[in-house]
Write a structure and sequence with these properties.
A hairpin with a 2-residue loop joins strand 4 and strand 5. The protein has one domain: Rossmann fold, CATH 3.40.50.300. By secondary structure, it is an alpha/beta fold.
Length: 244
């Protein structure tokens, strides 16, 4: 048989596995996602940070949160990067370190509003997909398991009471030197939950096949342990766990 007639062997394309951790603001999903990604050696995607980065960019460029057309253009050209800073995630917007700037309550509320706009979500969707690289990805957000990565190997929905989440947020802000009002944070979280769960596009809710974990009375290590246990029971993740 001539070389030209020999059957070609097509390489097997393996799609990197994804673990999604969704939940409301302050549930601890970002911390768990980061810890889990480090433990597995996976990439990590803080999807909420993308919306916060967009909200901050809109503020800096004088774009109103209800100007969907302008926000869509801004999202499509968002100059944002995730960089490592001695083991901690550093968020860079247009060349400036905004890791702490995007964590204010004002930016958080603005991010929730722009995230409800259909064309804005679509503009950022492809960027989120691009984070899916070998060996795998841990993605946290509000619709990672329902919309962005519906084929994820493991889906976790992490929640907690509004009061518990507000207290965590309050301590976080005070610890970073920001002024904070606990009662106001509770009301803001409740309003954000209502807005996120009732929006027409990608409402906040667990995927049908998600594991729901309530972290109200649990510490970080306890939650991480439960997520790790779930990963151990997920067939196509076991090869990564055996390396630990």
């Amino acid at each position: 048989m001539s070389a030209d007639l020999e059957p070609s062997v097509k390489p097997i394309v393996t799609i990197p596995p994804v673990i999604t951790i969704d939940g409301p603001s302050g549930s601890g999903k970002g911390t768990i996602a980061h810890r889990l990604a480090v433990k597995l050696g996976f990439h990590v995607l803080d999807s909420g940070a993308l919306y916060r980065l967009l909200a901050l960019a809109a503020q800096q460029h004088g774009v109103q949160n209800n100007n969907e057309a302008a926000l869509q253009v801004l999202a499509a050209h968002l100059d944002a990067q995730f960089q490592d800073n001695q083991g901690e995630a550093m968020l860079v917007l247009e060349g400036e370190d905004v890791t702490h700037s995007i964590r204010t309550e004002e930016i958080g509320a603005a991010a929730s509003k722009v995230a409800a706009l259909p064309s804005v979500r679509e503009a950022l969707l492809q960027r989120q997909h691009a984070f899916r690289e070998t060996p795998g990805l841990v993605a946290d957000g509000r619709d990672m398991g329902t919309v962005v990565f519906p084929d994820a190997s493991l889906k976790i929905f992490l929640t907690a009471s509004a009061e518990a989440r507000a207290e965590r947020r309050y301590k976080q802000l005070i610890g970073k030197g920001f002024a904070a009002d606990l009662a106001a944070i509770v009301e803001d979280i409740k309003a954000r939950d209502l807005r996120d769960s009732q929006r027409a596009v990608s409402p906040l809710k667990p995927a049908d096949d998600a594991i729901v974990l309530d972290s109200t009375a649990l510490g970080i290590e306890a939650v991480l342990s439960k997520v790790w246990e779930a990963a151990q029971n997920t067939p196509n993740l076991q090869q990564f766990l055996t390396k630990q």
